[in-house]
Amino acid sequence: MDIRSSIEDTRKGFEESFASGDFYNRQTQDAEHLERILAFINVRDGMRILDLGCGSGYLTFPIAERNPYCEVTGLDIVSDAIEVNRSRAQEAGLNNLSFVSYDGIGFPFEAGLFDLIVTRYALHHFPDIEHSISEVCRVLKDQGAFFISDPCPNDCDKDRFVDDYMRLKKDGHIKFYTKSEWIDICSKCGFQLSDSFESKIRFPKKKDTAFGYEKVLQKHDKAVIESYDLVETDTELFVTERVNNILFEKV
Q: Beta 114-120 vs 140-152: how paired, if at all?
């Protein structure tokens, strides 16, 4: 895999997604899930918090707004989104919130800077996941917390229909990981499991971004496809995906 080319595909894909505005928001927003995350991550005054792959700031802004005595940073590869977020934070008077762009490989921070790192619906785009998790560990303090929220394959999906389906849109999707895969990856980088919960996302996709959809359906078992509650309309496709929400501690 060409890591830099994959990152560039993701950058371009999300530039287009952010430009689509309302449709992108409909893909990813879930008020109930957001509230559950905010309660789950247990933010305390004085924390330094990083939102990895912050995108449009869906998680970053409410963390900063509700925790004025914390220093919150959003990190992403899409510079256009970062600029919009900076303007929005300035307009809102959120002096505890900043945004940083980077190359998708090395985190531009010193070691042991953050107390908490969160990431939502982003890590399946990271082409060198082991390196990225090692960077999380590097910039996190000892006993710091790392929260992952990311979709996962259904138990019956051994051939990973869901990954083939998600790759129909050329935005650098790499892989959804199971909970056990996350535990394995993160334990190798110095993390231990602290807590977790599951949620779901009903994910719409525009048909005009899903070239090759019919071939994907032919390739995979019908029962597996049905397990994602796939629905097709004239213009869109919908699947329901399970979501891992996992809290790790750096040890």
A: parallel
Mean pLDDT taken over the chain: 94
Domain edges within the chain: 3-155+170-201+243-250
Q: Is the pLDDT of residue 26 over 70?
A: no
Per the CB < 8 A criterion, the answer to whether 136 and 250 are in contact is: no
- pTM score, whole prediction: 0.96
E-state strands within the chain:
48-52, 71-76, 97-101, 114-120, 140-152, 191-206, 231-232, 236-250
Looking at residue 69, the DSSP 8-state letter turns out to be: T
Can you name the CATH fold of 3-155+170-201+243-250? Rossmann fold (3.40.50)
Classified as helix, coil or strand, 130 is helix
Of 145, 149, 152, 123, the C-alpha closest to 194 is 145
pLDDT digit string, tens, across residues 119-145: 999 999 999 999 999 999 999 999 999
Q: What does the pLDDT read at residue 24? A: 56
